[in-house]
Amino acid sequence: MNILAIDTSNQVMGVAIYKDGQVLAEYTTNMKRNHSIGLMPAIDHIMKETDMKPDQLDRIAVAKGPGSYTGVRIGLSTAKTMAWTLNIPIVALSSLELVAYNGFGFAKYICPFFDARRGLVYTGLYEQTDSHLAVRKEEQNISFEAWLGQLNEMEESILFLSQDVELHRSMIVSILGEKAVFPSVDQFHLPKAGILASLAADRDHELTHEITPNYLRLVEAEANWLKEQERKRNE
């Protein structure tokens, strides 16, 4: 099976090519820049490096969020366009799950998170089983302090993974103490398109037109529109 994986859901942009059980190539950038500019050149580069032709692809894998609204849209729209053009299926996976898999084999409980500003985070809790990660606490957009309070009720250690970990390390440690575990290598905090591709090989695909972004909350414009409609109904 040949898979092209795309992740533009956060600051890290990644693409990877997977073929017959192994990741052939992976391209990653971690810079504050517009992914709409760099994505297609990255895809073109990695396809040429692996001698992969578009018509040889069997499916597209894409990170569907949560994360940057713009980033999520860029990845999904690119994946959908390619899948529709090539008439191949899409597998869309959670951006948080991808980060969580960086900790597979290192801890029983793994908490990936992305900073969502104003004291909020996108997060969830994963539990390692023999062969995969299972969702222990559903992904949500929540006050990080409140979330850490929930995690502190657990007795086990928890591995925290996030490119935003330094923004919140002191709060994590102050609430969880020694139960909070962090990787010694910063690279474990970054999502990997190779993991996305590998996971997608064993997941069910979705109909292209049914795939939706996983924002975990309404974008501000939509939220304001709903509030305005509610106000008008109450007049």
TrEMBL record:
Any single Gene Ontology cellular-component annotation: cytosol
PANTHER family cross-referenced by the UniProt entry: TRNA N6-ADENOSINE THREONYLCARBAMOYLTRANSFERASE, TRNA THREONYLCARBAMOYLADENOSINE BIOSYNTHESIS PROTEIN TSAB
NCBIfam families in alphabetical order: T6A_YeaZ
GO molecular function: transferase activity
Keyword field contains Transferase: yes
Entry keywords, A to Z: Transferase
Domain spans labelled Gcp-like: 23-171
CDD domains per record: ASKHA_NBD_TsaB
Lineage, top ranks: Bacteria, Bacillati, Bacillota, Bacilli, Bacillales
InterPro entries from the UniProt entry: ATPase_NBD, Gcp-like_dom, T6A_TsaB
UniProt name for this protein: tRNA (Adenosine(37)-N6)-threonylcarbamoyltransferase complex dimerization subunit type 1 TsaB
Record GO biological process: tRNA threonylcarbamoyladenosine modification
SUPFAM superfamilies, sorted: Actin-like ATPase domain
